[in-house]
Amino acid sequence: MLERLNRAMDHIDAHLDGRIDVAELARIAVTSEYHFRRLFSALAGIPLSDYVRRRRLTVAGAEVLAGERTLLEIAVRYGYTSGEAFARAFRAMHGVGPGEVRRTGAALQSQPRMSFRLIVEGSSSMKYRIVEKDEFRVVGRKARVPLVYEGLNPAIADFIRSIDPETLERIQNLSDQKPRGIISATDNLDPCRTEGSELDYYHGVVTHAAAPEDMDVLDVPAGTWAVFENSGPFPQTLQYLWRDVYTQWFPSNPYRSRPGPEILRTQVSQDGAQADAELWIPVERTTS
Predict the structure, then answer these.
(1) Does the first or last residue of the chain, that is N or C, have fewer Cβ atoms within 10 Å of its Cβ?
(2) Is pTM beyond 0.85 here?
(3) Cβ-contact 265, 278 below 8 angstroms
(4) pLDDT tens digits, 242-273
(5) What string of DSSP letters covers 65-116?
(6) How far is CA 272 from CA 153, 234, 239, 276, 279, in A?
(7) Residue 253: which residues within 8 A CB-CB, separation 6 or more?
(8) Phi/psi class of residue 17: alpha, beta or left (left: φ > 0; alpha: ψ in -120 to 50)?
């Protein structure tokens, strides 16, 4: 898997001055476009779109310093429709405009070319199971919130606090199957997966019951799920669990993620410092 990912990275660098098709990258990595985006962001720590943009601006910066092309030629070469758009993106990364760099030779930022390698630790194991689940629905309350990679998500915390106890009890009473009790479900995430991009967040239950008129509903088709369990400090353990699933479990197992909501059941200690987590991720078995 890592060898195929590195071939995809070679393809990116070879096409920085042209169109980079994510579907082609997924084909090279022998996986789906959906899974490739998610796996890349987990392994690299930044979304694929951010990496490509930063690599292009790194290479463009070297050409600005070299002085062999005009600034407009460099802008067009790396996919910008105008010199102004190029200058804004250039300044956002390098902290200085391309014209000033050419005049003064100012220092630039650099996004190194990434490659992936396997580090065998063997100090811990991951507890998981594979579940075939019939169609169901998530019923509860929904909000559109920004994606936060590290720490507590303030928008989600504020949203949960806004749900009154009576409504929360009515939601909980609808739970009739695993994972039981109040769960969090995330869906409809922007494919770019940049920090601050938005997703649908559901605070609800997994059920077959009919939804009350004042509730939001997410219908989920039948399929295969990988279920992971973990315990530790809150909320870091939950975020590290998601990271470890994509960086350790997927590269070592014959599955890939598929479109669908990710469901998290969390039991937080009374002081809010510790949590037991159960993460459900929709998966499909790979053929190679």
Answers:
(1) C
(2) no
(3) yes
(4) 778 887 788 778 899 999 999 999 888 888 88
(5) HHTSS-HHHHHHHTT-SSHHHHHHHHHHHHSS-HHHHHHH-------PPP--
(6) 15, 7, 15, 11, 19
(7) none
(8) alpha
